[in-house]
Please model this.
Amino acid sequence: MTEFDVDLFVIGAGSGGVRAGRIAAQHGAKVMVAEADRVGGTCVIRGCVPKKLFVYASRYAEEFEDAAGYGWTIPEAPRFDWPTLVAGKDRQIDALNAAYIRNLGRSGAELVQTRATLEGPHAVRLGDGRLVTAKVILVATGSTAYRDPALKGHELAITSNEAFHLPKLPEKIVIVGGGYIAVEFAGIFHGLGVETTLLHRGDKLLRGFDDDLRTGLAEALEKKGIRLVLGDQPVAIEKDGDGLVVRTKGGLSLEAGEVMLATGRKPNTEGLGLDRAGVETDGAGAITVDEHSQSNVPSIYAVGDVTNRINLTPVAIREGHAFADTLFGGRDVVVDHLGVPKAVFSQPELGSVGLTEAEALDEFPAVDIYKTSFKPLKNGLSGRDERMMMKLVVDGTSGRVLGCHILGHDAAEMIQMVAIAVKLGATKAQFDATMALHPTAAEELVTMREPSVRHRR
Model:
């Protein structure tokens, strides 16, 4: 008889936790997975998937406008129905939630839909009071939307969680933040006809991305009609009749039907019982782990956003899979967190992999920059004044491509494929030797012959 009730107990059935539980069960482990909410986690339930569906919906306004240049006549002004979109999104999420549950069951893992907290290095307390012992515990509770408690009236605002379930669209919205969520929802609400203001304390959007793309995106958003208020921040959110008003440090009063806080997310560790088990966290509340996702307590591991390494769904999935293979599959697998591609589904879209120009200059004595900006062929007949930008960051000594950054339509689709080349250490000469595919926007990636800038130190 085994010493423990299960070999593996997973707290959290998001992308990372589900993958870890499934793979461990397929390796023969006895697995129990606990989830207090719907199965699928932030990405599936209230993040990437519903967000991308909303992005698709919001793009149609421009598509209808562009159709005229291609000979199409729209008989009457298109009308958008918010409840129809929300209902369609809910059906899709329901289907994915059910698929995650089925896949867990097929793998042999047991799902318990209740809250679970740590009671010790090998013990978990379920919401119904049961105590379950486990040889190994994996924490995969993800992250949660951050609200600054010092912001007066923050309770009057929504976060991305509530944005997916609004009973109706507001006429005006103020979005606070300058990261992924803020710029993506700015494009969504604007595209659906909402007067949108983006309020960000920094002087540029999307910290951590290449500066040229950050500048290019800001210019494109303003050209679309989104109001950017940079270098300022809210000090209070107040009721104003049937609406709200945001008071800023710079003295502005921004009226809105809704205010959305998109100032980041924090590791979801509050009330988890980490202190009872002796698990160490960092200053942000994230569980500190090593390269194998193991915490300071040998029997407790953590993957995904709760570790605050790279907070992207594919990274959580890879970490969960590596964890299960290492502990239950007899393979020592370490996740490589370098060269991870990133996409922001802003409008226009942004894709990035590898080093930015600034990062390359800090690390390499010789850096060559290849950059192009052009109007895509599709915009020729439509008359849309939106340009595309592509940028390669190259080691001036070896010729290796250190980074690639794209702003424009389908940037995310392109960057996924470029990421393979960057991961393999492809050189600029190898990019040049690759035949262009015409007519495409992506062909520009292999036709940039002369560097725009040569940095030497």
Remarks:
- The first strand starts at residue 6 and ends at 11.
- The chain has a mean pLDDT of 96.
- DSSP finds 13 helices and 22 strands in the chain.
